[in-house]
């Protein structure tokens, strides 16, 4: 064997020229994606962060400054305080509605025979594939006095006078829930698909009534999915401002609406930036809570 | 389950009258919910579709006369046709940008290990969870005054494409990361083994085995961009306005059946591309 | 010397984390040789193959193909071709496209590709299957396509990674014979990884028995079977009975210290011993042989060609393969004998 190691020594040492390209390759592949994320998200966030400390004087977009006024205004300005409350309330209620409807819908699709599945999934895809503006407009024609709802109720004899549900919080909820429903549905459907349907038979076999089965078997198995679906709907509902502002009452001012108003209406860039930063931080906090909850869940499941 | 019946007592099976009542009640509830969910999802779609064939110029039920007048009106109006064109151009651009960048990044995540992987993951995914109004505003503020070679970036379709890619690219990345994980790594090794270089292997072996995933995520990117209007609202000028932006602005002033036509056209574009992909997919299935 | 080697592994070493998967492995495969790496799972045989193929990098040592060093080269620059356990055919390419792939990657002229593909498919008896997709073929057919795909590029060395282990028994035997036939006809050089000693014995020019990353013995199959270099090789290849005994001044006892009636032709030194004999070499009622043991018949199994008689002597259990019936019943004390040449002893 000593001869073999001598020839090994005579060989040119194995060069490591592949090392650099192997280390650089992933970064090269990721560079377009990272460029987009950093240049068009990271940079603007930093820019907005700086902007939020500028001053707004004399109808100019902004005046370079360093002031906490824009953040302080959020605590003192009742308009903004109300907007936070309105946004949170709308998002909370519509997320709860979304989760309940989405849960029932997903369970229905899961329980129904396979041949119905494609039709239901296509139905659920509709709100996802249709533009939010089209959805808004659809409900915009349904709720008012001369809309379809009023016409249907009057012509069926249920009511005698035309009614309008337009520009009510109810209309805003209906629209918002419609927009967030598909996300919630698909999250929950994937959770249900992971459950063996035999658990239902097993539970019924052991003598549990349907409601009991639901409470003791299905609910615990889908708890994680419900949390994820709720969080997803909540984040989405917080960020969606066009639907509530178009369908809800004029006083229904969400943060998103205020941002648009400050930016496009009042040309107050620092204020709009400060609002955006608060909204971003809020979304990030909700996301972190989800991550914590989901990692705890996997830890529990081993 | 400490409160279950003692072992010797016969279990109550689903034959008691109570259980039968439960089952009937459940069936009725299920039926009622099915009707509700179909109606809920269908209402805005049906209302829009019906209204687009209205002859009158006000939105009012019942509809007295039917016609294609508003379709003619839509396609005769340069402003609306230009907006549609702008929308399609921006959506196609977004699809290309986000599919290429998302697929490459997902492949890097599947194939390589590198430092800061989880941080990079967060950086790529984070924009997907950001409200459109924040993204639109941020890009508008940061690039509002920027010009390259004396050419203003602000208001260009390219900027809107890149902004839309903030949502579309992470989505493509997420879908493709899951798809790449299903690729049998042995066929990749087999290709290397037979002399296929990494680039050849990627195009000859990897991409064809994930073509369905790529086409689906490209479709999602296209649909997201075509339908988006909050970012576009902040980033477009009169010349580059997209159809959803124009619809939003018109809705604020006055709603006419022209808006219904615009909705139908927009949804039509989505469903046509969906149908094309279905055809492609079925042909792909027949191949194997 | 060097110019007749298809592949040389020189003190190859690879560790994953703290586990040494390949430990100081040296093999020299001559042109046209068929060398099998045989060992239990986790013995490092597949890791060795992956080092040769270029899918892993060695921590130390050298790999030479046709005399040239390749261990710094990526897989696609090495003149090797692997037949994977599952075939790893490209599912979206037809059989012909699969076989042509390596030729295209190596820049073979378009006009030459078609005849070579046809010839390769002829060799594996799949002419006429060119336009099929892998999904439309059986497991055995897929594996033959994989074989054609690797052979068509005429690599310096073919690497087989347990190619038959996913197939059922009859197909396995059939393909085993086919690979053997191809090797005899074409004379390719190959490294074949398996945990099936039958495959190793039937096909190989030489067998390397591996254990915990090391080569225990490398030699012709008859030698490995007949003259195992270590206790591990002896027990891993073929069946064997183990007699655990304690020797004390010529007297034998079992592991518990109970005396047993064991006579050996050549006395062993005092201490604990493990004596091994193949069950086919043990003979019943042969008090005349040099070595013998008195044991009680426990039970009998019928194995087809032979009966297998299970005996006990104290803690020692052994079994004897014997053609035809014997005149003993369970519980009888029987003389079992064997020749000195058929026994090995380890302490």
From TrEMBL, chain A:
Any single Pfam family the record assigns to this protein: BPD_transp_1
Protein location: Cell membrane
Annotated TM spans: 24-47, 90-111, 118-142, 170-192, 272-293
Domain ABC transmembrane type-1: 84-290
GO cellular component: plasma membrane
One record GO biological process: transmembrane transport
Gene3D superfamilies in the record: MetI-like
SUPFAM superfamilies: MetI-like
Superkingdom of the organism of origin: Bacteria
Chief location bin: membrane
Keywords: Cell membrane, Membrane, Transmembrane, Transmembrane helix, Transport
Membrane-protein topology: Multi-pass membrane protein
Family in the record: Belongs to the binding-protein-dependent transport system permease family. CysTW subfamily.
Record's protein name: ABC transmembrane type-1 domain-containing protein
Organism per entry: Metarhizobium album
Lineage: Bacteria, Pseudomonadati, Pseudomonadota, Alphaproteobacteria, Hyphomicrobiales
Automatic annotation (TrEMBL), chain B:
BP GO terms, sorted: transmembrane transport
One term under GO cellular component: plasma membrane
Localization per Swiss-Prot or TrEMBL: Cell inner membrane; Cell membrane
The keyword Transport appears for this protein: yes
Membrane topology: Multi-pass membrane protein
ABC transmembrane type-1 domain: residues covered: 84-283
SUPFAM superfamilies in the record: MetI-like
InterPro entries associated with the record: MetI-like, MetI-like_sf
Record key words, sorted: Cell inner membrane, Cell membrane, Membrane, Transmembrane, Transmembrane helix, Transport
One Pfam family, short name: BPD_transp_1
Transmembrane regions: 28-53, 88-109, 121-146, 158-180, 201-224, 259-282
Major location category of this protein: membrane
Record family assignment: Belongs to the binding-protein-dependent transport system permease family.
Identification of the protein by name: ABC transporter permease
């Amino acid at each position: 064997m000593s001869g073999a190691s001598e020839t090994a020594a005579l060989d040119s040492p194995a060069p490591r020229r592949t090392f650099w390209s192997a280390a650089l390759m992933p970064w090269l592949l990721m560079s377009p994606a990272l460029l987009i994320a950093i240049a068009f998200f990271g940079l603007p966030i930093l820019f907005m962060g700086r902007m939020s400390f500028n001053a707004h004087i004399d109808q100019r977009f902004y005046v370079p400054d360093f002031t906490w006024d824009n953040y302080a205004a959020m605590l003192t300005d009742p308009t903004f305080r109300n907007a936070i409350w309105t946004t949170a309330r709308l998002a909370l209620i519509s997320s709860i509605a979304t989760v309940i409807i989405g849960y029932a819908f997903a369970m229905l699709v899961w329980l129904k025979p396979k041949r119905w599945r494609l039709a239901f999934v296509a139905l659920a895809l509709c709100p996802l594939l249709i533009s939010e503006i089209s959805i808004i407009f659809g409900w915009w024609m349904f709720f008012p006095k001369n809309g379809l709802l009023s016409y249907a109720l009057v012509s069926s004899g249920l009511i005698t006078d035309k009614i309008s549900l337009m520009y009510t919080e109810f209309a805003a909820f209906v629209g918002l829930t419609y927009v967030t429903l598909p996300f919630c549905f698909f999250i929950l459907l994937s959770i249900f698909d992971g459950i063996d349907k035999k658990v239902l038979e097993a539970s019924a076999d052991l003598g549990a009534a349907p409601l009991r089965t639901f409470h003791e078997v299905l609910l615990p198995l889908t708890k994680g999915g419900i949390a994820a679906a709720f969080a997803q709907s909540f984040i989405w509902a917080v960020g969606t401002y066009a639907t509530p502002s178009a369908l809800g009452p004029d006083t229904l001012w969400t943060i998103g609406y205020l941002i648009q108003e400050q930016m496009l209406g009042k040309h107050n860039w620092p204020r709009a930036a400060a609002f955006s930063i608060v909204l971003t931080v809020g979304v990030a906090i909700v996301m972190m809570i989800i991550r914590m909850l989901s990692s705890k869940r996997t830890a529990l499941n081993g | 389950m400490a409160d279950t019946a003692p072992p010797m007592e016969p279990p109550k099976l689903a034959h008691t009258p109570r259980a039968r009542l439960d089952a009937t009640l459940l069936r009725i509830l299920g039926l009622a919910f099915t009707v509700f969910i179909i109606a809920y999802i269908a209402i805005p779609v049906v209302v829009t579709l019906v209204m687009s064939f209205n002859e009158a110029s006000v939105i009012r039920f019942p509809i007295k006369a039917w016609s294609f007048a508003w379709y003619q009106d839509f396609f005769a109006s340069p402003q609306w046709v230009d907006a549609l064109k702008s929308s399609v151009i921006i959506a196609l651009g977004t699809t290309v940008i986000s599919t290429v960048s998302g697929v490459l990044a997902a492949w890097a995540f599947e194939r390589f290990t590198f430092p800061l992987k989880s941080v990079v993951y967060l950086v790529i995914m984070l924009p997907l969870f950001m409200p459109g109004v924040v993204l639109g505003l941020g890009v508008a503020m940061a690039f509002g005054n920027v010009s390259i070679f004396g050419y203003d970036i602000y208001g260009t379709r390219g900027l809107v494409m890149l902004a839309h890619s903030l949502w579309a690219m992470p989505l493509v990345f997420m879908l493709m990361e899951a798809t790449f994980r299903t690729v049998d790594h042995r066929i990749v090794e087999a290709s290397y083994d037979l002399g296929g270089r990494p680039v050849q292997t990627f195009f000859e072996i990897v991409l064809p085995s994930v073509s369905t995933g790529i086409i689906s995520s490209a479709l999602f990117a296209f649909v997201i961009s075509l339908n988006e209007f909050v970012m576009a609202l902040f980033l477009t000028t009169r010349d580059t306005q997209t159809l959803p932006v124009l619809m939003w602005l018109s809705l604020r002033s006055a709603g006419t059946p022209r808006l219904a036509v615009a909705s139908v056209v927009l949804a039509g574009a989505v469903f046509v591309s969906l149908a094309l992909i279905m055809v492609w997919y079925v042909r792909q299935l027949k191949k194997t | 010397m060097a110019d007749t080697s298809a592949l040389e592994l020189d003190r190859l070493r690879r560790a994953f984390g703290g586990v040494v998967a390949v430990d100081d492995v040296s093999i020299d495969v001559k042109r046209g040789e068929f060398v099998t790496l045989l060992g239990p799972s986790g013995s490092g045989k597949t890791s060795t193959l992956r080092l040769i193929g270029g899918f892993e990098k060695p921590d130390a040592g050298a790999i030479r193909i046709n005399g040239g060093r390749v261990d710094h080269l990526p897989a696609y620059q090495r003149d090797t071709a692997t037949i994977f356990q599952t075939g790893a055919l490209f599912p979206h390419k037809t059989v012909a496209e699969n076989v042509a792939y390596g030729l295209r990657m190596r820049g073979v002229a378009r006009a030459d590709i078609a005849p070579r593909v046809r010839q390769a498919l002829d060799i594996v008896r799949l002419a006429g299957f060119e336009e099929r997709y892998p999904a439309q073929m059986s497991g055995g057919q897929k594996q033959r396509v994989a074989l054609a795909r690797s052979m068509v590029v005429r690599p310096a060395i073919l690497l087989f990674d347990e190619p038959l282990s996913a197939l059922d028994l009859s197909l396995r035997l059939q393909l085993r014979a086919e690979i053997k036939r191809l090797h005899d006809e074409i004379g390719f050089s190959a490294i074949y990884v398996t945990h099936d000693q039958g495959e190793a014995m039937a096909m190989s020019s030489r067998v390397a028995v591996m254990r915990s990353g090391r080569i225990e013995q490398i030699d012709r199959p008859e030698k490995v079977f007949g003259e195992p270099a270590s206790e591990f090789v002896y027990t891993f290849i073929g069946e064997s009975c183990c007699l655990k005994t304690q020797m004390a001044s010529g007297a034998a006892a079992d592991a518990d210290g109970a005396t047993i009636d064991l006579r050996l032709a050549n006395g062993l030194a005092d201490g604990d011993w493990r004596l091994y004999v193949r069950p086919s070499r043990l003979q019943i009622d042969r008090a005349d042989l040099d070595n013998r043991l008195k044991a009680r018949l426990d039970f009998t199994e019928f194995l087809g060609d032979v009966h297998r008689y299970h005996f006990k002597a104290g803690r020692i259990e052994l079994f004897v393969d014997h053609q035809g019936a014997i005149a003993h019943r369970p519980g009888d004390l029987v003389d079992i004998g064997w020749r000195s040449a058929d026994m090995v002893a380890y302490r």
